[in-house]
Amino acid sequence: MVRDLFWDDDFRLKWDDMLIHAETLEECPNTGTMVVRWVRKFPFFCSDREYIIGHRIWESGRAYYCVTKGVPCPSDLRRNKPRRVDLYYSSWYIHAVESKKEDGQLTACEVLLFHHEKMGIPWEIAKLGVQKIDPGLRAYQRERDNLMLHSHGALSWLRSTPKLVQIS
């Protein structure tokens, strides 16, 4: 579920207060690789930021990996506002771990995140925008349980790896 939350830009618009626009520019049905455009809201004294990022997710064993980086996209013209962030790298690794119950069951997960971007604002201001994921994850879990929610992005990834993932 954490994998799907990170990959679901449609739902991210609901829980990430800084994300004000997300659209898929390109996608590869064979690999699930996507190029997306994000616009993130910044405080009034900074202009909003635009990201053109390519990302890919894959499963290896019982873990998931995602690599995301800023990419050029000639079809999406550069604008003065929002300000485009070109230097962007973000990677994460998700794997199942034993829960705090210590019952031997792998019912929790660990996420290792490596992230770097050059936003053009001081770190002290940028860290104010760090989101807590737990409320977004809980909302995603409720909505998904009620509606069997899968966004276009999540379904694209699932279609590109049908032998590895089951949808119940």
UniProtKB/TrEMBL annotation:
Q: Which InterPro entries match?
A: START-like_dom_sf, START_lipid-bd_dom, START_lipid_transfer
Q: Which SUPFAM superfamilies has this protein been placed in?
A: Bet v1-like
GO CC term (a single one) = cytoplasm
| Cited PROSITE patterns | START (PS50848)
Residues covered by the START domain: 1-116
Q: What is this protein called?
A: START domain-containing protein
Q: Name one GO molecular function term.
A: lipid binding
